[in-house]
Design goal:
With 195 residues, the protein is mainly alpha-helical. The chain is built from ten helices and no strands. The protein is globular.
């Protein structure tokens, strides 16, 4: 039973990746607005319903690693070693994401995103969702005695650090500069009594 279940999961993951890769290739070749879900399904040799079983929207095809990033940030908080400082852990995750998103191979994708109001709007809603997920992980951590407001604020700063650094002339230096401010802000919030 486990072997069959493992095979099924691998097949689903392979189909999902094939759809995402096909969509991105088509979007970059023809333009995001010129490609529909039916085009993606036909090119990937799957049914339209299969595309929608893996991706909730056309925009989600572009941001196919969205859920992975969201979970990585939450796990950075929950899986860190006891008494390991929080901000350096988050900095490492954001630094890795910025490196990935500023690689030369990512430039055409970001040009496409920047040129599309629908993709920019989707990215903004995605960032808000990531910030809420990170804030929940921070707020739920018993070793972090800051208030819910402090957790939500720092989570927004962390998510915005990624967007700001991605657009900077020197992304890695920008991450360092931004995280100095985040660390200072986190330190200022200090422990507060929990209700």
């Amino acid at each position: 039973m486990t072997v069959q279940s493992g095979r099924r999961e691998r097949k689903k993951a392979a189909t999902r990746q094939k759809i995402a890769d096909t969509a991105l290739r088509l979007f970059l070749e023809r333009g995001y607005d010129a490609v529909g879900i039916r085009d993606v399904a036909a090119e990937a040799d799957v049914a339209v319903t299969t595309v929608f079983s893996h991706f909730a929207s056309k925009e989600a095809l572009v941001f196919e690693q969205d859920a992975d990033f969201e979970h990585r940030l939450a796990r950075a908080v929950t899986d860190r070693a006891p008494h390991e400082p929080l901000i350096p852990v988050l900095r490492r995750e954001i630094q890795a994401l910025v490196r990935h998103c500023t690689a030369d191979s990512a430039a055409p994708i970001w040009h496409m995103i920047d040129a599309s109001p629908a993709l920019r709007e989707y990215e903004e809603s995605m960032r808000l969702r990531h910030a809420e997920s990170l804030a929940t992980a921070l707020d739920d951590d018993p070793d972090l005695p800051q208030t819910t407001t402090a957790c939500r604020t720092i989570a927004r700063f962390v998510i915005d650090a990624y967007a700001l650094a991605r657009e900077a002339a020197d992304p890695e230096a920008a991450v360092d500069e931004i995280f100095q401010m985040i660390e200072a802000a986190w330190g200022v919030t200090g422990p507060s009594p929990r209700p």
